Inverse folding.
């Protein structure tokens, strides 16, 4: 009897192992009805994509099925590169009325929540994300590594490790306990001087961060800070940039206020998150320096609607109202000026998996549908310095989405993805 039970348990374990192991990519020949490649404004008809292992081997007119390849008929769909979100918080609990929620959850629980967030993000068609910080420092590194090993499903992640912030600044968990009593993993990036800022940047890069996130102004969703107020100084920001760039890594700066934006650009950062209160001088400076803007112009609506219903702190709601319309006006002006803009949502403030809701706002506030799509594909890859994602061209990862309707006629169809492929493996 015990022998039979052991045999059954072994069979069950084998089945579980098979189900949880990462699927292997195969040779595919994908027939696309319409193809948007992510790097041009053309819509290609009658194209087939050859996939070998994880990568795109060829793109061209459909011909004879290559030897050993399996045909995948997506002739009824518009096929696009897998989408990229440049501002997410997968490895975190998500926003709520409970200020203490991040400290109540252990690092292990936070990582498990992150695994769920990663799964729904991938299913929504976002095959790559830049994850720009977590209160539980380095939890994002662990989640990225788990996805890379195939332990959990999720998008390709590039992570910040933690926020580099002044004491009590926009990257701290303020208003819960005295900040010096917070767990050490919640203060990995706190810095008071340029020397400390440089050390924190080196610390995070040494422990697996892919880039650095610096808090240049106060935050909407941080107690006791004001979005318009500069925080990290120009000297601190320069120290961070110097360390990161010397190691071939990029720096993005959380900056709502105009002075903080200008400080960050003058310090040499590669991109600005939010840019809510950017004035004309700040926008012209961004254009002149080639600095990318990552502007989350949907989630102000979510904060106002859901935050009000759920009783989020009045300070949050007030600051959100003061920045939402201003940010959308700055976005429209940035589009007019031809400033480089990447797709960035702040998912985690609103539920993961709803990342595509921002497309409609980008079109409403000045972009064409194709510009919005390219902001989340080829342009987003360019902002991250990645030549392996974001486009349907040979050599890149075989990351695709497919939708039955035409996103150029109705951008909201990207909120309802029919098929997702990551690295040549069909996700849905």
């Amino acid at each position: 009897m015990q022998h039979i039970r052991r045999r059954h348990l072994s069979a069950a374990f084998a089945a579980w192992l098979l189900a949880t192991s990462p699927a292997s990519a195969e040779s595919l020949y994908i027939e696309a009805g319409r193809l948007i490649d992510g790097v041009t404004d053309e819509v290609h008809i009658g194209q087939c994509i050859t996939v070998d292992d994880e990568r795109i081997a060829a793109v061209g007119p459909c011909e004879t099925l290559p030897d050993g390849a399996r045909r995948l008929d997506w002739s009824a769909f518009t096929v696009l590169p897998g989408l990229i979100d440049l501002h997410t918080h997968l490895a975190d609990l998500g926003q709520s009325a409970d200020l203490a929620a991040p400290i109540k959850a252990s690092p292990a629980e936070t990582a498990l929540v992150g695994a769920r967030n990663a799964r729904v993000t991938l299913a929504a068609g976002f095959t790559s994300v830049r994850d720009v910080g977590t209160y539980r420092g380095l939890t994002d590194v662990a989640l990225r590594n788990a996805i890379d090993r195939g332990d959990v499903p999720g998008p390709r992640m590039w992570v910040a490790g933690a926020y580099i912030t002044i004491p009590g600044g926009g990257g701290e968990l303020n208003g819960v306990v005295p900040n010096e009593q917070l767990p050490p993993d919640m203060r990995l990036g706190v810095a008071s001087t340029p020397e400390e800022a440089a050390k924190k940047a080196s610390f995070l890069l040494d422990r697996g961060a892919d880039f650095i996130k610096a808090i240049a102004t106060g935050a909407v969703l941080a107690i006791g800070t004001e979005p318009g107020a500069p925080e990290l100084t120009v000297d601190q920001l320069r120290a961070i940039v110097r360390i990161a760039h010397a190691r071939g890594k990029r720096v993005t700066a959380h900056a709502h206020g105009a002075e903080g934006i200008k400080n960050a650009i003058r310090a040499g950062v590669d991109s600005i998150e939010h840019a809510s209160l950017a004035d004309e001088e700040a926008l012209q400076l961004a254009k002149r320096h080639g600095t990318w803007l990552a502007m989350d112009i949907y989630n102000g609506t979510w904060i106002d609607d859901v935050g009000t219903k759920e009783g989020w702190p009045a300070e949050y709601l007030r600051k959100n109202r003061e920045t939402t319309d201003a940010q959308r006006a700055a976005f429209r002006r940035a589009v007019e000026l031809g400033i480089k803009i990447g797709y960035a949502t702040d998912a985690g403030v609103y539920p993961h998996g709803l990342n595509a809701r921002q497309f409609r706002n980008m079109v409403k506030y000045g972009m064409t549908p194709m510009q919005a799509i390219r902001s989340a594909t080829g342009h987003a890859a360019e902002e991250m310095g990645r030549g392996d994602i974001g486009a349907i061209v040979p050599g890149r990862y075989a990351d695709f989405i497919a939708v039955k309707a035409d996103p150029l006629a109705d951008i909201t169809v990207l909120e309802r993805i029919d098929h997702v492929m990551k690295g040549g493996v069909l996700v849905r």
